[in-house]
């Protein structure tokens, strides 16, 4: 399974991570199937935003409302590791729900995609499409 995303989505992920540093950024991945058409930023409401993220539930609920109205699906989430690598951290693994959603993790100048499944996180290849 290959995740597809536009160059605009990739640029948004990098920009959001850069803007939030040294804190973690976070947001939603919207699209259909395995194609990400939008990265929607959300406020990070975590108490310690340098090492944790908590997506603003208002943004998440609004996105789910849009889905019911025929909008894009919430196919995953993203966040950054400002001082780490783009691999799920111990904290990420603790918060894994096994819901099969896609997680994008941004670190330095890299982005990696992961499937949150019942056995933890599985690395996913990706390609940029237009």
Automatic annotation (TrEMBL):
Question: Which Gene3D superfamilies has this protein been placed in?
Answer: Cytidine Deaminase, domain 2 (3.40.140.10)
Q: Which InterPro entries match?
A: JAB_dom_prok (IPR028090), MPN (IPR037518), VirAsm_ModProt (IPR051929)
- Mind listing the UniProt keywords for this protein, alphabetically? Hydrolase, Metal-binding, Metalloprotease, Protease, Zinc
One of the protein's GO biological processes: proteolysis
Extract the GO molecular function terms from the UniProt entry.
Answer: metalloexopeptidase activity; zinc ion binding
Origin superkingdom: Bacteria
Q: Does the keyword Metal-binding apply?
A: yes
Q: Where is the MPN domain?
A: 3-130
Protein name per its UniProtKB record: Peptidase
């Amino acid at each position: 399974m290959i995740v597809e995303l536009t160059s605009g989505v990739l640029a948004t992920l990098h920009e959001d991570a850069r803007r939030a540093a040294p804190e973690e950024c976070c947001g939603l991945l919207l699209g259909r199937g395995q194609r990400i058409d939008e990265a929607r930023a959300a406020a990070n409401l975590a108490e310690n935003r340098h090492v944790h993220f908590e997506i603003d539930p208002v943004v998440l609920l609004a996105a789910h409302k849009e889905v019911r109205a025929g909008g894009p699906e919430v196919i995953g989430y993203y966040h950054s590791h400002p001082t780490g690598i783009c691999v799920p951290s111990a904290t990420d693994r603790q918060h894994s729900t096994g819901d099969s959603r896609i997680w994008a993790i941004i670190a330095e100048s890299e982005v990696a995609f992961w499937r949150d499944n019942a056995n933890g996180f599985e690395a996913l290849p990706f390609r940029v499409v237009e």
